[in-house]
Design a protein that fits this description.
single chain, alpha+beta, Aminopeptidase, three-stranded antiparallel sheet, 11 strands, about 25% helix, about 35% strand
């Protein structure tokens, strides 16, 4: 089975409040859940804290995420992620295998990149799920969700230099390397995916 249409809740409209040309006002239906061929995704909630804590405590997983995060830092991350959903009507989803095991997190969020408001695609999987094509699967699903419903000119992906696997995931999904920038203590590659225009 391929990508399935998400389960859509109530309509939710929220102006982004930015005049930057890469961001426009958003009318985005809340998608509580969606499924791909091998994963299910559900809106990130408090019940996912334990899975996130374990994910963020893995040094291999956190290598390109700024380092291992304490449980307290992860609780703050989860609170901010849930607030993003409340404010904008979209955000991060918890990922599960078809057997119900917590597999990681992924989503679309507002971010300031090089001083500009952007919409960023993010994804991370537990170490045991690496190398199976699951990251490419979830990124493809997020792209299919984002462009037609958000109506945005582009999405960006940020990858720490040296993370070749993540670069390949974005390139496979059509993202193009734009430039590098310095983030606190790290050099980061900015990838961009422009929305396809209907003909």
């Amino acid at each position: 089975m391929g990508f399935a249409e998400p389960v859509i809740g109530r309509a939710f409209a929220r102006p982004v409040g930015s005049t930057h040309p890469t961001i426009c006002d958003v009318s985005f239906p809340i998608m509580e859940r969606f499924v791909t061929e091998r994963l299910s995704a559900e809106r990130l909630r408090e019940e996912h804290l334990a899975g996130l804590v374990a994910l963020h405590l893995d040094p291999d997983v956190s290598r390109y995420l700024g380092g291992v995060r304490s449980p307290e830092a992860t609780a703050g991350y989860l609170a901010a992620s849930m607030a993003h959903w409340d404010q904008h009507g979209f955000g991060l989803w918890a990922l599960r295998t078809r057997a119900g095991e917590f597999a990681g997190r992924a989503g679309i969020r507002h971010a300031v990149v090089a001083g500009a408001q952007e919409l960023e695609i993010v994804y991370i999987l537990k170490r045991e799920f690496w190398g199976r094509g699951l990251a490419s699967e979830i990124v493809a699903a997020l792209v299919r969700i984002a462009h037609p419903r958000l109506g945005l000119p582009s999405l960006v992906g940020l990858v720490v230099v040296g993370n070749g696997a993540s670069c390949r995931v974005l390139e496979k999904s059509g993202f193009v390397r734009e430039r590098t920038m310095l983030s606190p203590g790290e050099e980061v590659v900015i990838y961009r995916l422009a929305a396809r225009r209907e003909t």
